[in-house]
Design brief:
Number of helices: 13
Bound molecules: pyridoxal-5'-phosphate
Helix content: 25-40%
Number of strands: 17
Strand order of the largest sheet: 4-12-11-10-7-5-6
Distance between the termini: 35 Å
Radius of gyration: 21 Å
Order of helices and strands: HEEEHHHEHEHEHEEEHEHEEHHEEHEEEH
Structural class: alpha/beta
Length: 391
């Protein structure tokens, strides 16, 4: 099919819930994507932080194909090897105790919310169920995770929402200290992603961890976007010097297949017992086999390179001195670019995409989430397109 035929068919038969860019993608290689007519795009998006190994990464293709041939799905009524191995690696690399596997970020966050509420219910009974989240956060699109999201624009249309969420400003410790005894957990993104690539202060995060411990509130890290190597460590919490009680992950975990989950520490390992939490597709063996390749690839040396690549790209962007861009920020290959007043991030994204560079927006700025395997040549090509399109 041609790009136009794909767009027409989509318009006719897929519910119109996405504001799409006018590009159809057919295939990819490394950090390059091609439309059906063979036009090349440099990818600074990774399908929103998902394809950390890029496209056509041979070990990933081989592992997915082999597992698909062997066993595509069973259920959690039986045992399979790939998710057990993946859980072991994730725990050993983070100091967490156990994992639960699910399918998407919103669903993983529903799981940690349930975990915090049941932990508190088991220990203290009813009435201690409030989860505090941060303003400008993003936690998902289910009825509950929309309410966990600390942005009023998301609290519309779908009433009634789930009760039991309150919001405080990021980096405002006293707002958290003044919370009452109805709280059971604090949920935060260590780098706010959709909100605009805003890293929390290290001292704040460490103080929140201490406060949570003192009040027996669960510290919950939403690492759906920051997890799995994106920030230059396997999880962002490792760079913040904390061990949360539970962390959710999703986007990059399986390099492009739908998979998510929760990691829980020793204190929380038995909170969700048999019959309290489940999902049919969770721990799918093909997704888990893909996840194992991601873990094999993301060695400590590879993660150091992610940091170096992030620094290289940020310096490259700042050196272009483009009139529309202010400062860059972020962690590893999760990069935000400030957009100067008078410029629209949507217009800038459209112009870059038209010139062959795929980028994202977040909040009022730009957001770059390139595949973690991106090469210097590919980054240089992306920078050249930025210069040509925006100078
Ligand atoms: C993307 C994202 C989600 C939602 O994940 P889905 O897979 O779209 O449900 C939740 N939290 C954060 C921080 C995210 O970036």
């Amino acid at each position: 099919m041609t790009s136009q035929e794909i767009k027409d068919l989509t318009g006719q038969y897929i519910m119109n819930t996405y504001g799409r860019f006018p590009v159809a993608i057919d295939h990819g290689e490394g950090a390059r994507l091609y439309d059906p007519e063979g036009r090349k795009y440099i990818d600074f998006t990774s399908g929103i932080g998902v394809t950390d190994l890029g496209y056509g990464y041979q070990p990933w293709v081989d592992a997915v194909s082999a597992q698909a041939k062997k066993l595509g799905h069973t259920s959690n009524l039986f045992y399979t090897e790939p998710p057990a191995k993946l859980a072991e690696i994730l725990c050993k690399r983070t100091g967490m105790s156990c994992a639960f596997f699910a399918n998407g970020g919103g669903e993983a966050n529903e799981g940690i919310i349930k975990l915090a509420r049941k932990y508190s219910f088991d220990k203290y009974g009813k009435g201690r169920s409030t989860i505090v989240t941060l303003r400008n956060s993003f936690h998902g699109r289910t009825i509950t995770t929309l309410m966990a999201t600390g942005q009023d624009v998301f609290h519309n249309y779908f009433f009634p929402f789930t009760e039991g969420f309150r919001y405080v400003g990021a980096n405002d410790l006293s707002a958290l200290e003044s919370q009452g005894d109805d709280v059971c957990g604090v949920l935060l993104e260590l780098v706010q992603g959709e909100g605009g690539v805003l890293p929390l202060d290290q001292e704040y995060v460490q103080a929140v961890a201490k406060l949570c411990e003192a009040r027996d509130w669960l510290l919950l890290a939403d690492e759906v976007q920051t997890g799995v190597g994106r920030t230059g460590s396997l999880f962002a919490f490792q760079q913040y010097g904390i061990l949360p009680d539970a962390a959710s992950f999703a986007k990059g975990i399986a390099g492009g297949l739908p998979m998510s989950g929760i990691l829980a520490n020793e204190k929380c390992r038995d909170v969700l017992g048999p019959g309290t939490h489940a999902t049919t597709f969770g721990g799918n063996p093909v997704c888990a086999a893909a996840g194992l390749v991601v873990q094999e690839t993301l060695s400590d040396a590879f993660l150091e390179e992610v940091k170096a690549k992030g620094a290289y790209l940020r310096e490259g962007i700042e050196a272009l001195n483009l009139p529309c861009f202010g400062k860059t920020r972020g962690l590893g290959l999760m990069i935000g670019i400030e957009v100067r007043e008078g410029w629209s991030n949507k217009d800038i994204a459209a112009r870059l995409i038209d010139q062959g560079l795929l980028v994202l927006t977040a909040g009022p700025g730009m957001r770059l989430l390139p595949p973690l395997v991106i090469t210097k040549e590919e980054m240089d090509q992306g920078l050249a397109i930025m210069k040509q399109a925006l100078a």
